């Protein structure tokens, strides 16, 4: 993305200078495993699912995959990738796991509608009439046994015990609502001790985050994060929010601003995390006027050292916000426009493996358009291929495609419910 692979600008607030480096393949690309069979989102676009990948896929064949398409949602068997159900919905919906390994929350014009996938032997899949009402339903965060819903239309945050959704059939679980101050596209998270973090913004823009303790008293605030977007929680409940000029890191009651190497614009808008790793992988964009949605660099934030560096990826490794997932070994798995899954070691910034899966593809004209996506459960990656109306299950250990499912329409969003 830049002529110089390494740059060291002035130190950020944490005292460590942000760095930019080039990703170096630890394995020669030409020796990558063969596989059988086969731009950052807009400033106000919703973020990708930032929760940690599920620990393991369902071993009993009762895991489910929800896949959206224009006007409906398919529910698939996670083992065979056969279509089990096809339900009507709105023309464009977003899918988020509810966190209980059974339900998926579908963002519609009414709010967050509950899709019961039937995972874990719970019966047939159906889009229920249950809706967590929310004007302009936005982010869904799962953490510490709670599911946190954010309404962009009001900036209200709705929280419920994740397990309560499955234990209250036919009705919504009890919720706690924290009223917003001024409506904006934002996100909130509740930590295990009740600490509440939420974005701050309004009609004139988004500026940072506010932190309150369990009693509601504000304990920290930072307004040096223009365009704040996306959230991810790493090891030890270190929380990162993306900014248009770096990121905010919250840990142990304090907020630290981490500057991007590109100023005034070096945007991180999506965080890909593992709650067993101190390193957050983020997307990265340094040209606000760049056309398209393909990106060619990633942000690596070490939450223990409070450092941020940007890694330039090889030229053929371009991705969108739907194309990064964390998986085995706390590694990052990037589905690139060359059709391969590139394995990135967050600790070193190196690409360690290349797994060809689908045909090369081009970035979407609009972020909502169907384009390839990846989600991971255990050692299996599920990769969508809209051009062929298909989905593939890839063994990340061997690189083999163990199953391919043919769909009735081009897949768009994808969410797992592994039973």
UniProtKB/TrEMBL annotation:
Coiled-coil residue windows: none
Statement: the UniProt record of this protein carries the keyword Membrane: yes
Superkingdom to which the source organism belongs: Bacteria
InterPro entries: AztD-like, Quino_amine_DH_bsu, TAT_signal, WD40/YVTN_repeat-like_dom_sf
Transmembrane portions of the chain: 21-43
Keyword ATP-binding: no
UniProt keyword annotations, A-Z: Membrane, Transmembrane, Transmembrane helix
NCBIfam families (alphabetical): AztD
Name of protein: Secreted protein
Originating organism: Microbacterium dextranolyticum
